[in-house]
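Input sequence (562 aa), recorded before submission:
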Amino acid sequence: MLAINGILPPDICRQFTIRYAMTHDCAHPRYPIGIQSFRKIRENDWAYVDKTRLIYQIANRYNCVFLSRPRRFGKSLTASTLAAYFKGEKQLFAGLDIERLEYDWAKHPVLLFDLSTTKDKSHDQLVNELWLQLKLYDIEYDLGLSSRLENPSITYEHFASPGTFLRELLYALHRKSGRKPVVIIDEYDAPLLNNYPNEQHYEAIKRVILDFYAPIKACDEILRFVFITGITKFSQLSIFNTLNNMIDISMMSEYASMCGITEQELTDNFSVGIAQIAERIQWATEQVVDRLREYYCGYRFSRDAECVYNPHSLVCALEQKEFGSHWFATGSPNFLLTELQRFDFDISSIERCEAEAVDFDAPTDTMTSPLPLLYQSGYVTIVDYDAESNTYVLGTPNKEVRIGLYRMLLPRFTGESTQRNSSFVISFSQAIIRNEIDDAMRLMQTFLSTLPYDHHETKPSLKEKHYHSMFYIIFSLLGNNIKSEVKTALGRIDAVVETHSHVYVFELKLDGSAQTAIEQIESKGYMRPYERSGKQLTAVGVNFSSEQRTISDWKIQQVKII
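Predicted structure, token format:
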């Protein structure tokens, strides 16, 4: 980078001042909450974590790229950054990594389609929205194509649909500019997700989308670059069936941090915000970082990638200076709940779910379990990988997701309001923290006995699963360390709950007896893995009665005090 008499040019100096201030002594950092425009962030001095090295890499290595990430994870900002790069807006990249890599800054016509605006649209509304975005680009590049649509004396069969108009638009851009156009489609699956459970609406929406995406393949020879983002994968769409040159970078280690904040990026960019939280709550900065990591980190998008933070939750926590449930506050996962219920997914297996990549990195419309949806939408992530068996272990990424997910799921099992569930969980949690297990079991017995009858499964095999899942969710909401279906040499422990001073091993029975449950804990040696924990060990046998529809009896047996 050139300097004049040791002084940087003003525009570059201003950018470096911003980056320096964000990591040093700026009193009031500006966090881009909800801002997805790269231009707006750069022109208004919002905090920006530099991902432009990866932007340059994919833009100059591939021709057609697909990236899947959960909602609020920076997909739209990535799309906007790519748009600015291909438009040649060099001034926006001053001081960033890409400035040292790019010399040409060629200006290409760019079509960026934001389909997040179509997620709640009907068939006709979707078509109108696509026409609107297309016409705006026609006007922006002064092509005059849309004016023909308004002239009833001229018939153009090519303009029979948004897809055919897009094809004409791309060729017209190529002829006029002499350069290959760039197509960016952000949230390509948004129109489909809300309509997927409704087969009639879904098929109608899919036909429109198929028509709209078809020109991407047809115009391949004149396109410079195609970038498509989404949450899920729909195998029946033409972008996956016909774009044989598409590269899916979603699980490539090299781009695992494309969206999300790494530990190093947290330190380099947000030290001021961390210090402000520490001052507000009178903690050491190390404690604040540990809590941020516990709540918002943990996402892994490749088997050998480092964990990243949810960017939306992180900047919200820094702005508000508190550890809240920021990601869950931005969306209602009704589709996920529907699919969990349709597949009768065992919630208690969610923390240690073993699978191959094809089991979770799979199309939504052909899935045989909700695992692909849970992974792609960010409710579970990669927590471990066994190279020998090529098997992944999935689990919830962090405390924000874990607590939010279980709080969302509990009404499905209880049929009760969130307020009543919360009141019970608080009382139950306090009893557990005080190590008053007898009182805790009595509270649960009373709570379960008041639940509506129709929220109890009718088949015996499903009843046991129902109670086990509800038990697991309730304990998970306590914030304590709970493990379900823990494997041992002689069997599986139903649940292990660990507090700061105690380890409780629970065995659950349906229409059996608490004594039988205790005997199983003893005979199977379930306590042995915890004998060196330095904590008091307690076995708890719990029996659910299908007739009484609650806990009929329980037994607590102190095993050993170390």
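Checked by second reader. The chain is about 45% helix and 15% strand.
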